[in-house]
Amino acid sequence: MSDTEKLTINLGYVDLGRIDLLVQEGFYSNRSDFIRTAIRNQLSTEGEAVRQSVVRQTLELGLRDYDRAELEAVKAAGEKLQIKVVGLVRIASDVTPELALATIASITVLGALQAGRDVKSALADRIL
């Protein structure tokens, strides 16, 4: 699985032309390089607002992996997880739909969720 997500955006012709001009002049290697740089710059500008929201909403930031052993331990403790992540959540391929249902109460992911189709399907009503 990739650690990037593909996005599709619509731009006006003038904006697109301005990006192409900057690429042509060598400021950026291609359109994607320009867009990634612009997004990083904007996220840096809004960094404090993001940090405050993460704290206020008690979210984890970054990559969070869940494997069978961790979920089996949660199940043995009689607990259920409320997963809240800004970034990427990966549920390992060795996690069965039954184990996921028994241990995950809810999933909120601002970013991407990577899990098997059967696990995603089983958790569909718990993915917020």
Automatic annotation (TrEMBL):
**Which Pfam family is one of those matched by this entry?**
RHH_8
Q: Which residues form a coiled coil?
A: none
By its UniProt entry, which InterPro entries does this protein fall under? Answer: Arc_rbn_hlx_hlx (IPR013321), RHH_8 (IPR041088), Ribbon_hlx_hlx (IPR010985)
CDD domains referenced in this protein's UniProt entry, alphabetically: RHH_NikR_HicB-like
Q: What is this protein called?
A: Arc/MetJ-type ribon-helix-helix transcriptional regulator
Organism placement in taxonomy: Bacteria, Pseudomonadati, Pseudomonadota, Alphaproteobacteria, Hyphomicrobiales
